[in-house]
Each structure stands twice: as structure tokens, then as C-alpha cells.
Amino acid sequence: MTLPPPREVLAGDKVLRINWLPGSDRLRGRCHCGAEAEGEDPIEMWEWLLAHPNHPEGGPDVPPVPDVLPPPPAHRVTDPSIIRSRIPVLV
Amino acid sequence: MTSIVQNQWYVAAYGREIGRELFSRTICGESILFWRTEAGEVTAMSDRCVHRRFPLSQAPSHLDGDTVVCGYHGFTYGADGKCVAVPGQTRVPRTARLKSYPVVEQDTLVWIFIGDADKADATRIPRAPWLDQEGWTTVSGMEPLAARASLLVDNLMDLSHETYLHGGYIGTPEVAETPITTEVDEEAGIVYVSRHMADAECPPFYAKSTGIEGRITRWQDIEFAPPCLYKLHSRVAPVGVLPNEDGTDPHAFHVEVNYAITPETENSTHDFWMVSRDFALDDEAVTDFLRESNRTVVLQDVTALDVLEQVIAGEPDGYQELSINIDTGALAARRIIARLAAEASGAAAEQAAATAR
Ligand code: FES
Ligand SMILES: [Fe+2]
Ligand SMILES: [Zn+2]
């Protein structure tokens, strides 16, 4: 079953669009000025679109991922009353 | 810094909640008294008497025609919030007046403007006509949420969570698996997220209400007008059944799932929910089923978000989240809300500067 082409619903003059390309993890962004780019990260993609009219060459940045990741941080909690009162409803 | 966006219209209540009894609700951190005049107009003013702050919603405070009489010492206020009588003297102090709020009743909802009343433009209120239209039947309710409004925005803008949090009700595997398209109208301030599933399992919510057996074509089209009104245009049909070329769609079932996201305080929210359908209009069993199922689903979200609020309130600021493709719509909504907040605080700063001059 193939999907229909990306829908364009909003009709305004200043519409920004991000289509998640079916069958992939990629996003395609398109500005109302016609500029288009592909990327993998929605935050970077919004930034690229919002840079209008100066969309950076080469598309959105790829968030840097170092070869060796630092160990993940602990989840720090600060409010003692919350720590004591928290009931694990969802576990 | 407040996270509540000022200079906006918010849903304060369903019209049916407000009558000739005094009704109080906290909206955006402001305690507000609502009542209907004898002519049937909804009116809204501060729920604190200017004299000694007794709540005007608290018995023995009461309505007397189109005035409210404070139950403590008898200060009496008109529908515009102005004090018209005080006990024992004829002169009413000029400062004896309550803040009164612009109110519009529309589509069965009572909208209130929070912020600078001069900026209240009723034409900016988003519409949900099916709530009050021939050919639709609606069930609705409101659940108190002990979590900030932004958590409900995140929740509703990413329906992939249906698969996990609402499995067995509205979630099926296809919801989380199907890519979305996201549009933002920068000028109108609208976020539109659409997820069209061509061939999906039919969750009980739709199987039992529509009577469809077997797989479905399921469309979810979210239209969010930040900060308050969220509309999910839901279309369900047997697999492969599409709308006609001319836009008519007689063989599909349409459900409008609407939410009004109204901050109560910084950390609590009124979660108004409405489910309107264009089929089985008079079938009480369907009405009861949809009311019960949707309420169950809303409470699943409420439980989860109440816990999440506790976690967020109890951790240091600046905790790093991680966003992926499913979050594209929620990120857009957050950005528009941040922009509205900045505009409103810019306007407030300007006004303060003007008064200081
Ligand atoms: S998967 Fe979203 S919070 Fe865990
Ligand atoms: Fe949910
Ligand atoms: Zn552009």
C-alpha cells in the first residue's frame, strides 16, 4: 500500500512544512520561499526553516555525536518533599 | 517568570456549567466568578470582594437580580463588576470595583480573555462548529490535571503515545509506526500534524462505536490553535475507502476530538475534552460508550502527566530532553507558544514603561 503524496492543508502565505519521508528516518523541510532541505533531527530542521530568508547552505546541522560518549548523567532530584511523596503509579 | 501566556482567549467553562448559581473557577492563576444575567448573558469578574476579600462565590453570597451580594458585609456588585451599594452609607467609594473580564459564549464554550482587556478581539477565538451543529452528537467533560499546561500540549501533539499509553482503547501499532507531516502557518499561528494510516487495526474505541469489522483506513489530522484549542479531525473508514473527488465522504465515520487546554495555575490545568461524531447520532449506547471510553483515555493521560509534573517539579532546571521525528509537531507548538508569551510580555513591558513615563 503506497501512501498518498504529502498533504498540504494549510493555505497561508507563510507556511513551513516538515514531511517525515515514509520508509525512512529522514525529514524533509520546505519553506514558503521554496527552500528545501533534508535532515534527521526535528529541532535542527525547525532551526533551519526559521532561519528564513537565510537558510544555511547544506541543510540543517547534524547534532554532533562524539565517538566516545560520556557516561549518561544521573537524574538528579532536588525537592525532598517530592521525593518522599512520590507514589510510583505507573510501575 | 510565568509560563502562562497572557493576552489570550481561554475556555473557562462549558455554557451548561454557568446559570443563575454563582460559579467559581481559577483560570490562569486568577480566581474568577461567573454567573448568568437574567437576560442570559454570561458575566465574569474577580471572585474576591474588594472589602475584606470574602469569595463572592461562597454562601451566603448570592445573586439578587443582576447583582451579586457579598455574603459577609453586603457589598453589592453589578454585572460589570462595579459596586452599586455598600452597607450603611449612600456614597459608594469609586475604587469599589472588581476586575471584569471579556467573555464570549460560542460553540457551547465560554471563552474568557486573560490579560489586557483592551486587546480582546473576539474574532480571534478559534471555532469548533460541530459542538453546536445539526448532524453532530457530542459528549464532553473536564478533568482536573495536576500538571502544567505545556505537558498536555506535548501529549496531544504527539499521538504516537496512543500505542503505548492507550493500547486497547485508541492505540494500535500503526499509530506509532506511521510517519507524520507537519505544517506551521507562521502568520495564523496554527500547527497542523497529519498522520494517515492506509491500512490499520481498528481499536475498540472505533470498532464498537462505528460497527466496522476488520481493518481500517485511519486519518488523524491535528489542528492546534495555541494556546488553548486543540482539534483532532479523525476519519475512520473500511480499508481503502477514500473521500470522493468532490470532497464528500459519505462512507467514512468522522469524529472530532477536541481539547481546550486552560491553565488553572502554573502547575495545574483544566483538561476540557469533547468528542463529536457524525454517525449514530441518537444511539444512546454509542453516546455512553464514547463518553466512558474517552474519559478513561483522558484519565490515563492525567495519571501519567500528574506523575511527570512531580518529576519535573522535583528536578533542577535545564534537564536535557531528547527529541525524535515523532516530536516535530510538539516542537512547533512549543515554539509558537513561546512566541506568543514573548509578544505578551513585550506588550506588558511597553505598557509599564508608558505608565512610568
Ligand atoms: S518513551 Fe517518551 S517518555 Fe519514555
Ligand atoms: Fe493520550
Ligand atoms: Zn525561506
From TrEMBL, chain A:
Residues 61-74 have a biased composition (Pro residues). Residues 52-79 are annotated as: Disordered. It comes from the Bacteria. This is Uncharacterized protein. The lineage of its organism: Bacteria, Bacillati, Actinomycetota, Actinomycetes, Geodermatophilales.
From TrEMBL, chain B:
GO terms for biological process: methylation. It comes from the Bacteria. Transmembrane segments: none annotated. The keyword Iron-sulfur applies. Pfam families: Rieske, VanA_C. The keyword Transit peptide does not apply. One of its GO terms (molecular function) is metal ion binding. Residues 9-112 form the Rieske domain. Keywords: 2Fe-2S, Iron, Iron-sulfur, Metal-binding, Methyltransferase, Monooxygenase, Oxidoreductase, Transferase. This is Vanillate O-demethylase monooxygenase subunit.
